[in-house]
Amino acid sequence: MKKIAIMTAGGDCAGLNSVIRAVVLTAHHRGVEVVGIEDGYIGFVERKYKPLTLNDVDSIETKGGTILGSSNKECPFHYPVKGKEGEYEDRVQDSIEGLREIGVEGMIVVGGDGTLDSARVIHEAGMPVVGIPKTIDNDMVASEPTIGFQTAIENAVEAIRKLKTTAYSHRRVIVTELMGRTSGYLTLYAGFASGADIILLPEQDYNLKVVCQKVEEIMQSGKRYVIIAAAEACKEQGKEETISRIVSDSFEQKRYGGIAAKLSAEIEEMTGYESRPMVLGHLQRGGEPCTSDILLGTRLGHYAIGLLLDKKAGYIVGTKENTLVKMEFPKTREPRLLDLENNDICEAAKDMGISFGV
Ligand code: F6P
Q: Residue 120: CB partners within 8 Å, gap ≥ 6?
């Protein structure tokens, strides 16, 4: 191959730029040109390309987000028809043609499950693709951890530490809401590392009475405050998840949100302790990557372009137990959820008196 393309798509996270840098440096070293596709699948379909030089990627690994931009709902085989609202068409073949016209012979696609599902379709349509998983949710089977997860933990922990000092001053309960969709990894790891008293996960519905009893117990023990780490998709037993919006043309249509406000009001009413909600939101995705995400992104970027140039496309790369691995594109999406019975952090948390609300 003489020219390849790289694209980042889906919700952004920290560590994406280290992938781009690793790909460009390796390609340059091997005499291969790299074209960046801008704004994810929008740029793929609308043919928004830009050449990436060594200069373009100098020191970008320390920057958050992605220098290529991203979009998290467009799908190339279900793409809105211009001027015809509600109508969609398959743009995979003509988008591949667009890349071929500028000499692109293979692609590296960095994204979550939705993005990599479209990458599989592009690969099957004839453009060789290697996929790289990224998401703060850490819910992809292809890699453990995924790019962005470690930085999101750092971001959430930093925020919760700050909330602890104000909660202490005012003798308050603070309910923090963490991202992660249906997977509790981010909430469990950040909650545990930041010293949360109660951790509520999507994998285990909570009992509101138990949560309130725990709040009372902590406040009566002499501790001045309670921190609750609640996953955005956690829910009370017998109740529904709190959904903030439906993005109908997105791969993942549900956007969770609202559990912190709901739970904080219920706790205040049931216990009498003043409570405040705090949605950590997109702060978890933003900012500079931590070093382990830079390392992971760089390793996976280098591994992916190596496979592509060796004509071994059709894989998603990742790490398992800190070793590089690859797997074929899966045909279905199964998010990786926490196995509460076999997780040492869960076990330690319970043993340390942290409540899971059950
Ligand atoms: O999948 C990554 C993620 O940040 C989830 O944790 C969160 O639920 C979702 O994306 C938010 O999406 P958006 O950026 O569209 O609000």
A: 129, 131, 329, 330, 331
| CA–centroid distance for 292 within its chain | 15
Expressed in angstroms and rounded, the spacing between residue 64 Cα and the centre of ligand 1 is 16
Within 6 A (CB) of ligand 1 lie: 11, 72, 112, 135-137, 179-181, 232, 255-256, 285
3-state secondary structure (DSSP) of residue 31 = coil
Residue 160 corresponds to which tokens in the numbers above? 């919760």
Which SS3 state, helix, strand or coil, does residue 196 take? coil
- Angle between the 16-29 and 291-309 helix axes, to the nearest 10 degrees? 40
Buried b (16+ CB within 10 A) or exposed e, 270-294: bbebebbbbbbeeebbebbbbebbb
Alpha-carbon distance 275 to 172, whole Å? 6
> What confidence tens digit (pLDDT) does each residue in 248-283 have?
877 788 999 999 999 999 999 999 999 999 999 999
Where do the domains of the chain lie, and which CATH numbers do they carry?
Answer: 3-147+289-320 (3.40.50.450), 154-285+339-351 (3.40.50.460)
Closest C-alpha to ligand 1, atom 10: 11
- Classified as helix, coil or strand, 21 is helix
E strand intervals along the chain: 3-8, 33-37, 49-52, 79-80, 88-89, 106-111, 129-133, 173-178, 198-200, 226-231, 243-246, 254-256, 275-279, 315-320, 323-328
For residue 285, the ligand 1 atom closest to its alpha carbon is: 4
Per-residue model confidence (pLDDT) at position 45: 98
**Per-residue confidence at 332, pLDDT binned at 50, 70, 90?**
confident
Pairing of strands 315-320, 323-328: antiparallel
Q: CB–CB of 176/267 below 8 Å? A: no
Mean pLDDT of 21-40: 98
Q: What single letter denotes the amino acid at residue 64?
A: G
> DSSP for 129-160?
EEEEEB-TT---TT-SSPBTHHHHHHHHHHHH
